[in-house]
Amino acid sequence: MSTQHLYGTPAPQPSSTSPTQPNPTDAPEKLHLTSHNQYKTPRLLRENLHPNPLIQFNTWLSSALDPKDDSPQVKEPEAMTLSTALPNGIPSSRVVLLKTVDEKGFVFFTNYNSRKSQELTSNPYASLAFYWREISRQVRVVGRVEKVTREESEEYFQSRPRGSQVGAWSSAQSTAVQEGEVQSIVDEKTREFEGREKIDCPDFWGGWRVVPFEVEFWSGQPSRLHDRFRYTRPQDSEGGEWEINRLAP
Ligand SMILES: Cc1cc2nc3c(=O)[nH]c(=O)nc-3n(C[C@H](O)[C@H](O)[C@H](O)COP(=O)(O)O)c2cc1C
């Protein structure tokens, strides 16, 4: 792999008189990224793919977590970019952690009042993207979302460290807050829960499952001639057959 290069034109000097007070009209420096990394992983071949993309995903995830050959271990392979969109089509993305892959799809947990949850409620479709840099692999998932059962959310909530449980109760995720406001709610909630062995899962917190109708596996190859395979099935056929196509890189 080649080294990364970054160069840019110097930003104009801040015109504000106080160095601690950035001027809101300062222009950003223009940066160019000029790297040309050469990706090289073993070829991805049609005959090596499992007909079920969830099983294929699990194979990739297992080898990212615990490589059987001499390929590097991937750091936090469960981190995935989740994209949602408003009904008018305006998208937004953020990183969340994959917690379960079950026979239906990909599960993550969050605050049900957050921006992402509001977008998923008003437009129940999502896309996920995994990028496993160390092994030059990418996976894209597109699907319809559903909330997991209350039991699943409660069970997972109970497995979280106590600090994260208190944090979930204390954060009205995605809302604007004053400096120090969240910490004072954390302190208040910590006192409230003191002496209690079990902290219940808040009603406003739980899991979403992305039930895919498209899953794409991407494996980096030299000269941008990457291997790509896309699994698709009709949007309304949860148990349906998957069609697999190789895609041009
Ligand atoms: C590595 C990483 C993992 C994260 N995992 C989660 C997660 O599992 N659930 C979650 O709600 N937010 C998670 N976050 C925070 C989200 O990226 C995001 O800031 C938060 O959920 C609010 O997003 P929203 O305002 O779009 O709803 C994670 C962030 C990072 C960088």
UniProtKB/TrEMBL annotation:
<dbReference type="Pfam" id="PF01243">
    <property type="entry name" value="PNPOx_N"/>
</dbReference>
<dbReference type="InterPro" id="IPR019576">
    <property type="entry name" value="Pyridoxamine_oxidase_dimer_C"/>
</dbReference>
<dbReference type="InterPro" id="IPR012349">
    <property type="entry name" value="Split_barrel_FMN-bd"/>
</dbReference>
<feature type="domain" description="Pyridoxamine 5'-phosphate oxidase N-terminal">
    <location>
        <begin position="74"/>
        <end position="177"/>
    </location>
</feature>
<dbReference type="InterPro" id="IPR000659">
    <property type="entry name" value="Pyridox_Oxase"/>
</dbReference>
<dbReference type="InterPro" id="IPR011576">
    <property type="entry name" value="Pyridox_Oxase_N"/>
</dbReference>
<feature type="domain" description="Pyridoxine 5'-phosphate oxidase dimerisation C-terminal">
    <location>
        <begin position="205"/>
        <end position="249"/>
    </location>
</feature>
<keyword id="KW-0560">Oxidoreductase</keyword>
<keyword id="KW-0288">FMN</keyword>
<keyword id="KW-0285">Flavoprotein</keyword>
<dbReference type="GO" id="GO:0008615">
    <property type="term" value="P:pyridoxine biosynthetic process"/>
</dbReference>
<comment type="pathway">
    <text>Cofactor metabolism; pyridoxal 5'-phosphate salvage; pyridoxal 5'-phosphate from pyridoxine 5'-phosphate: step 1/1.</text>
</comment>
<feature type="region of interest" description="Disordered">
    <location>
        <begin position="1"/>
        <end position="35"/>
    </location>
</feature>
<feature type="compositionally biased region" description="Low complexity">
    <location>
        <begin position="14"/>
        <end position="24"/>
    </location>
</feature>
<dbReference type="GO" id="GO:0010181">
    <property type="term" value="F:FMN binding"/>
</dbReference>
<comment type="pathway">
    <text>Cofactor metabolism; pyridoxal 5'-phosphate salvage; pyridoxal 5'-phosphate from pyridoxamine 5'-phosphate: step 1/1.</text>
</comment>
<protein>
    <recommendedName>
        <fullName>pyridoxal 5'-phosphate synthase</fullName>
        <ecNumber>1.4.3.5</ecNumber>
    </recommendedName>
</protein>
<dbReference type="GO" id="GO:0004733">
    <property type="term" value="F:pyridoxamine phosphate oxidase activity"/>
</dbReference>
<dbReference type="Pfam" id="PF10590">
    <property type="entry name" value="PNP_phzG_C"/>
</dbReference>
